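hi! just following up on the protien thing from before. the input was this:
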Amino acid sequence: MNKITISIFAILLITASCSKEGTSDKCAGKYAPSTVTNLLISLDQDKQMGLATVSEIEKNPTEYPILDSASYPVAYKNIYRITKNILDSGGVYYKDEFAWRVKIIKKDDVLNAFCTPGGYIYVYTGLIKYLDNETQLAGVMGHEIAHADKRHSAGQMVEQYGASALIGVLTGGNQGALTTLANTLLGLSFSRSDETEADKFSVKYLNGTSYDARGAKYFFEKLIASGQSGSTPAFLSTHPNPATRVADITAVWECYGSKVGQTFDAQYMAFKASLP
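and the predicted 3d structure came back as:
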C-alpha cells in the first residue's frame, strides 16, 4: 500500500474505534482503548488471550479454588448483580463484545480481584470479607473491569512480546506457547498510567449507577487506616501510593459533579454472610 492508502486505512480504523456515542469526556478521558492496541491486536485475539488464561485457572484449583455457584447461589446472585450494575452504567465500551463472566475464588487471606482480557472477572473471598459495603467492592470491580475494557493487558503484552511475536503465538497453534502466554498474563503488572486510567474509569462507571462513585477511594482509605497499604493487596504493587489515589479519585468524582450515591451496607452484610 502507498502512503495515501495507509493513511486512509488508519483513519477508517480510528473512526471505527471511536464510533460509539460519547467517546470521551473531560473527567475520565477517551472511552475507547488505545488506537495503537486496536490496530495491532484484534478483539478476537483479546478474547483468545482471556480464554487461554481461564483455561490455566481452571486447571489449577489449588491456586484458584473457584467457589461453586450451585452450592452458593446467594453469593453468586449478589456478585452477578454488582457486575450487572457496573456494566449497565453506560460507560463500559465493550459491554456487548466481551464475556463479563464473574467467579469467586475461595481464599480468605487474599485481598484481590482481577479481570482477564475479554472480561473474565475473578474476585477473592478475602477481598469481599475485608470490605464494609457494596460500593467499596463495586469500586474495586469497576477498576478491574476497566483494565479489560481499556485492553490494558493487550497493550502490556505487545510491549513484552512485540506485536509480531504476540500475534504469532495467538495464530500459530502452539499450545505450549499459548500456555506460557496465559501464565504471563496471570502474573502481569500494569503500568502506572494503566492503573491511573482504571481508577478514573471506576469512578466513571459507578457515576452511572446508584453507587457512591468513590467506591475505590473508600477501599484505599480502609487500606491506609488498617496499615496494609504498603504490602497488600498484590495488585497495588506498581500503583501510585494509596493516598495519592484517594486524592485523584476524589478529583475525578468532583469533575463529574460530586454526586453522592449509596453504599448498600445492609445488603452487603447479607452477601458476606452467604459466603463459606
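Strands lie at 24-25, 29-30, 101-105, 113-116, 120-124.
Confidence is low (pLDDT under 50) at residues 1-19.
cheers
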